[in-house]
Automatic annotation (TrEMBL):
Name recorded for this polypeptide: OsmC family protein
PANTHER family associated with the record: PROTEIN YHFA
Family annotation (InterPro entries): KH_dom-like_a/b, OsmC/Ohr_fam, OsmC/Ohrsf
Superkingdom, natural source: Bacteria
Biological source species: Alcanivorax quisquiliarum
Lineage: Bacteria, Pseudomonadati, Pseudomonadota, Gammaproteobacteria, Oceanospirillales
Matches recorded under Gene3D superfamilies: 2.20.25.10, 3.30.300.20
């Protein structure tokens, strides 16, 4: 896996993945930014949510569950008055929608992602970030 980060001036950077996708990262005005893109720590948080969501949907589809939507709402806390201001706690709340979804299958998919498959959340958990998960089902 590869990525390239290019400075765009002030505190703005363009990130390009090895697969050719680009994302703009920028800072707030008080740090010289123009708020043209996500903050790097926001990118990390979004990456965790994307990784875990991919797992949950994949596991449910493999279990032949009729998933029509999946949303992962993340909340994170960072160390206060410390440098670096690392994540100390991240909570992932999955809202899974579908037809006749089996609650035990959804619960198991979230657990498998958290405990076995999501490289991003498992890596952060091993680094000392408290990782918690919850879920709910919306019938469609």
């Amino acid at each position: 896996m590869q990525a390239t980060i290019r400075w765009q001036g002030n505190v703005c950077f363009e990130a390009k993945s090895g697969t050719g996708h680009t994302v703009l990262m920028d800072g707030p005005a008080e740090h010289g930014g123009e708020n043209r893109g996500a903050r790097p720590m926001e990118m990390l948080l979004m990456g965790v949510g994307g990784c875990a969501s991919f797992d949950v949907v994949h596991i449910l589809r493999k279990a032949r569950q009729d998933v029509t939507a999946c949303r992962c709402e993340l909340t994170a806390e960072r160390a206060e008055n410390e440098v670096p201001a690392v994540f100390t706690r991240i909570h992932l709340h999955f809202v899974v929608a579908g037809t006749n979804l089996k609650p035990n299958q959804v619960k198991r998919a979230v657990e498998l992602s958290a405990e076995k498959y999501c490289s991003a959340s498992i890596m952060l958990g091993r680094a000392g970030v408290e990782m918690t998960h919850s879920h709910e089902i919306e019938e469609r």
